[in-house]
Design brief:
Elements (H helix, E strand, L loop, with lengths): L12 H4 L9 H35 L3 H21 L1
Length: about 80
């Protein structure tokens, strides 16, 4: 059975040549991936900071914080009741 250009796997790998695509671009691809990761991380941090600020502002308005805490307590009580059934 022949697989691609390789006729005999017992040969010298240097004579066979590269057996995967984009040989020689490993460093370039790593740098591209690293740059994309850095950009994504910065974007994620900004998005989470904006969301956190929005939630803090919403909760600090009036008695919203007390209502939220009470709703959270009620939700926990109902979950405990459901799990004890």
């Amino acid at each position: 059975m022949k697989t691609g250009m390789i006729e005999n796997w017992a040969g010298n790998p240097v004579e066979i040549g590269p057996i995967y695509p984009f040989v020689g671009y490993e460093v370039h691809l790593f740098l591209i991936c690293f740059a994309l990761w850095v950009v994504y991380t910065i974007w994620q941090m900004k998005f989470e900071a904006a969301k956190y600020s929005e939630e803090v502002e919403a909760l600090s308005a009036g008695d919203q914080l007390e209502k939220t805490i009470e709703n959270n307590r009620e939700n926990r009580r109902s979950i405990v009741k459901e799990t004890n059934l």
